[in-house]
Specification:
Number of helices of chain A: 6
Oligomer: homodimer
Largest interface: A-B, 33 and 33 residues
Order of helices and strands of chain A: EEEHEHEEHEHEHEH
Largest sheet of chain A: 9 strands, mixed
Chain lengths: 240, 240
């Protein structure tokens, strides 16, 4: 038996709602626990220790069995998210899944590097901007990129305001070769335990329009600007 | 002087609202005239001969100059759309633009093949489903693919209903190696000349949720499902 994975939820198939793989059918494996605590976290039920009792320790085989049950046994893209999935022992899950045809994308802030990043199909690094209240350890971040090796790595940056936007510009300058996705933040994230809470769709769409205009005004044509489709379609509801 | 291009509108930069390049900053060059007349056409001002007086004949150099003016002289993705841009002499525009660093994606139904398809950066083939009232000439469609050669080609299919969906499944079976994007149709397209007309956002979002559910129910994990972001963000307004 290897170390168990702390799992907050496994759900899908649905579509990936954001970033480089937007629109692709996927099953999400959301792990519990995070070394960050972003001010606007939209997944507190997988971050806040108050919800630790909802996180199940599962062996890789059990996680893969649940993914296969949800996908009808057909290989699908598996999205590893959190919390910070990099603090979980996901190597055996990825290795076993890939032999069965599953593909794996992982979303992490880039604070913890693991050698099994090199076994992913895509590494989505999402460094947190000033509005999060978190700071980025760029040495650790660089180690994540190094660990990914030849695996396709992309940047995804959530933007709430002008300070976040300027910060994203600096990050792009630091990693000019990485594809970069900008995403307007959701200022009405779900309070954990109340995923029926209202979402300010109009406000989020206004931020999206502002972000498009901001990129255009700067002639920053290498950036891709995408919303969170799942929020548009399903609000803060979990499991879709 | 080469033959002029019939131009309906040149606008941007904005983001590409749909398909494989969704979210990427781009300038649109929309040509006037079409060999199709889809029942739910969302660009009748570039299709209906009643609007022919609004289409300007322009030389490739003039089109490129306008694109460069809009982009601030910075190379950007240029999206060639219509109408059917394949019936226009776009080869010289693409050739001149590429020498200056511009990239070109073209959206066409696949009814007319041109040898300059091979000079594009992406060819988006959008065969029209039953709800359009149009039929597909698969020989001509195959010629478009052949003309593209090594250029990245993708399929984009608009889906309004179950018949369209089943048809999309057949097309996917016919071209298993082409990436395929499904897009819920807009049943409230703008009447030409009234781009402030109301859009049934709730209805379009309901169709998007249905389409995601349909793909998931069939385990069709190779399909990507994406909405028209520009309709969500700007309704039927032209020029964005």
């Amino acid at each position: 038996m290897s170390h168990p994975i702390r799992v907050s939820e496994i759900f899908g198939p649905t579509i990936q709602g954001e970033g480089a793989l937007i629109g692709q059918p996927t099953v999400f494996v959301r792990t519990g626990g995070c070394d960050y605590r972003c001010a606007w976290c939209d997944s507190l039920h997988a971050v806040d220790a108050d919800y630790r009792h909802t996180w199940a320790p599962m062996q890789a085989e059990a996680v893969l069995a649940e993914v296969a049950r949800l996908s009808g046994g057909r290989p699908i893209l598996v999205t590893l998210s959190g919390g910070n999935p990099a603090i979980q022992p996901l190597g055996p899950l990825i290795e076993a899944g890939r032999t069965q045809g599953y593909r794996f994308a992982m979303e992490t802030q880039g604070s913890v590097a693991r050698d099994w990043f090199a076994d992913l199909d895509m590494l989505v690094l999402s460094p947190k901007p000033p509005s999060s209240g978190m700071g980025v350890d760029w040495v650790a971040f660089g180690a994540c990129l190094s660990a990914a090796g030849e695996v396709r790595a992309v940047l995804k940056i959530v933007v709430f305001d002008e300070a976040d936007y300027q910060w994203a510009r600096e990050v792009a300058g630091r990693y000019p070769s990485l594809p970069l996705y900008l995403q307007p933040g959701n200022h009405t994230p779900p309070p954990p335990g109340d995923d029926a809470a209202a979402v300010d769709h109009a406000g989020i769409e206004a931020r999206m329009r502002w972000l498009v205009g901001r990129v255009v005004a700067d002639g920053w044509y290498g950036a891709t600007v995408l919303p969170q489709l799942h929020v548009t379609l399903w609000g803060n509801t979990r499991g879709v």
